[in-house]
């Protein structure tokens, strides 16, 4: 391996990673980047400039899959120009045997395919391709936890930390338990050690990641883990996602209320407003229970933002079921929502259900839902006008280079005029305008 490292360094070889999907995938790409840099690779400016191109894929919905095949296909011309270029594909989609095989058959120029459980093996896979000129396909079902890999975190004050992997819930539409395996929690001491090292390195906010953080069990439960992070580290802000409504406990609500470091935001996917559909989805709560939970959270943690995920067009969803979703959205008034058209995933229970809903009805429903939620999001954003909020400045706004952007504890994006030197700092911003996705404001000058 050492001579390979030397060769990579001497030739100053560069990598480029293209990531699809959720924050879990983005964080795994940071681990892959960490491994590659440890081998001597440096980051490339673009695919054209790279000696190693990796696609980290998602398979939660069908369009993610189509996009991946299109984009991997376009790499062929780069490979024709540079025969030493290595191409790898990994992530959730490669954990599905059929999809991985189809990719290998369609694109003979792909050198390495691996899954979600063996990222740490990447250096050995590269070695096998370079030295034995073998094509590598390794996507084992499940292995021990291997998260002692280096990480190259994205620039800026935000850091992600995995607290658990996998999911046991088997919501009937969802492929995640099949591609990410059963729940495995990281040891609490290791998590705390990792977080304690963040603030000396300039990080100001940590995102704790898990498919369902509420079922974290690393010797202690999730509320205790949060308590220990608040008590034993000096990271100023803590977020987490995702919370399953079926097991968000009173204890968790009281811990969030107790510690101001824990952000005033819960992402609480509801998926549907119809109790009948929720049962078919295997979500283990009813519409009424969800509404009751939100009321309890809001009563105990004033000002907390609640966001959600909603699926429309689940098999058998009637007009009345969809009307229940709309009325729930009106009743709860989410701060924002990710909305999805149901996409059948082969191997899941819902894909086999009768009464799959046609595209026409699905698109009519999603348009109506998005319009309703946009209106609510904008109304809620307008309610912030005149208030002064603490913003963690993340960097220069992508929309306007004269503006900086950052988030409030409630996860609202705020743009305001200010110098780039504010990146990583907390700033008090007086909100002047609330638009659909963003708040606009002005910095409150500190008294000399
Ligand atoms: N079709 C549509 N949306 C889905 N999600 C998960 N699986 C599917 C599917 N098969 C959505 C859920 C989940 C989010 C991450 O993706 O709303 O909360
Ligand atoms: Fe999928 Fe349900 Fe697990 Fe979330 S909780 S990852 S939706 S199975």
UniProtKB/TrEMBL annotation:
Residues annotated as binding [4Fe-4S] cluster 1: 22, 58, 92
Known EC number: 2.8.4.3
Keyword ATP-binding: no
PANTHER family: CDK5 REGULATORY SUBUNIT-ASSOCIATED PROTEIN 1, MITOCHONDRIAL TRNA METHYLTHIOTRANSFERASE CDK5RAP1
Domain Radical SAM core positions: 153-379
Residues at which [4Fe-4S] cluster 2 binds: 167, 171, 174
Protein name: tRNA-2-methylthio-N(6)-dimethylallyladenosine synthase
Domain MTTase N-terminal: start-end pairs: 13-131
Keyword field: 4Fe-4S, Cytoplasm, Iron, Iron-sulfur, Metal-binding, S-adenosyl-L-methionine, Transferase, tRNA processing
Cofactor note (record): Binds 2 [4Fe-4S] clusters. One cluster is coordinated with 3 cysteines and an exchangeable S-adenosyl-L-methionine.
Ranges for domain TRAM: 382-445
Annotated InterPro entries: Elp3/MiaA/NifB-like_rSAM (IPR006638), Methylthiotransferase (IPR005839), Methylthiotransferase_CS (IPR020612), Methylthiotransferase_N (IPR013848), Methylthiotransferase_N_sf (IPR038135), MiaB_methiolase (IPR006463), rSAM (IPR007197), rSAM_horseshoe (IPR023404)
GO molecular function: 4 iron, 4 sulfur cluster binding; metal ion binding; tRNA-2-methylthio-N(6)-dimethylallyladenosine(37) synthase activity
Highest rank taxon of the organism: Bacteria
Biological role: Catalyzes the methylthiolation of N6-(dimethylallyl)adenosine (i(6)A), leading to the formation of 2-methylthio-N6-(dimethylallyl)adenosine (ms(2)i(6)A) at position 37 in tRNAs that read codons beginning with uridine.
Quaternary structure and interacting proteins, as annotated: Monomer.
Organism from which the protein derives: Christensenella massiliensis
Record field: catalytic activity: N(6)-dimethylallyladenosine(37) in tRNA + (sulfur carrier)-SH + AH2 + 2 S-adenosyl-L-methionine = 2-methylsulfanyl-N(6)-dimethylallyladenosine(37) in tRNA + (sulfur carrier)-H + 5'-deoxyadenosine + L-methionine + A + S-adenosyl-L-homocysteine + 2 H(+)
């Amino acid at each position: 391996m050492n001579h390979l490292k030397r060769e990579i360094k001497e030739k100053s070889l560069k990598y480029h990673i293209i990531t699809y999907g959720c924050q879990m995938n983005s964080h795994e790409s940071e681990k892959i980047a960490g491994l590659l840099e440890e081998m001597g690779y440096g980051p490339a400016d673009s695919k054209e400039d790279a000696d190693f191109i990796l696609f980290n894929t998602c398979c939660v919905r069908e369009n993610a899959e189509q996009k991946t095949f299109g984009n991997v296909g376009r790499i062929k011309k780069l490979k024709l120009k540079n025969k030493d270029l290595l191409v790898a594909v990994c992530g959730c989609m490669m954990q599905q045997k059929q999809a991985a095989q189809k990719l290998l058959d369609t694109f003979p120029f792909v050198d390495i395919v691996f899954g979600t459980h063996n990222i740490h093996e990447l250096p050995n896979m590269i070695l096998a391709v370079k030295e034995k000129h073998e094509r590598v396909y390794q996507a084992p079902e499940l292995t021990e936890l291997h998260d002692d890999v280096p990480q190259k975190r994205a620039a800026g004050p935000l850091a992600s930390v995995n607290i658990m992997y996998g999911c046991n819930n088997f919501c009937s539409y969802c492929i995640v338990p099949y591609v990410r395996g059963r729940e495995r929690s990281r040891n609490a001491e290791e998590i705390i050690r990792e977080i304690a090292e963040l603030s000396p390195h300039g990080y100001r906010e940590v995102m704790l990641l898990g498919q369902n953080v509420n079922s974290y069990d690393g010797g202690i439960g999730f509320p205790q883990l949060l308590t220990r992070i608040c008590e034993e580290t000096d990271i100023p802000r803590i977020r987490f996602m995702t919370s399953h409504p079926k097991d968000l406990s009173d204890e968790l609500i009281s811990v969030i209320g107790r510690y101001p470091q824990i952000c005033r935001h819960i992402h609480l996917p509801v998926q549907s407003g119809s109790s009948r559909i929720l049962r078919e989805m295997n979500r283990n709560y009813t519409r009424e229970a969800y509404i009751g939970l939100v009321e309890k959270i809001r009563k105990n943690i004033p000002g907390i933002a609640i966001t959600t995920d909603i699926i429309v067009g689940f098999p058998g969803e009637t007009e009345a079921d969809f009307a229940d979703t709309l009325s729930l959205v009106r009743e709860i008034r989410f701060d924002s929502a990710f909305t999805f058209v149901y996409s059948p995933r082969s191997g899941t229970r819902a894909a086999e259900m009768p009464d799959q809903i046609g595209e026409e009805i699905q698109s009519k429903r999603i348009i109506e839902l998005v319009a309703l939620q946009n209106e609510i999001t904008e109304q809620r954003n307008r309610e912030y006008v005149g208030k002064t909020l603490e913003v963690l400045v993340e960097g220069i706004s992508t929309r306007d280079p004269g503006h900086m952007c950052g988030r409030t504890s409630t996860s609202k994006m705020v743009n305001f005029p200010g110098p780039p030197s504010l990146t990583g700092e907390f700033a008090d911003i007086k909100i002047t305008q609330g638009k659909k996705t963003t708040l606009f404001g002005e910095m409150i000058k500190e008294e000399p």
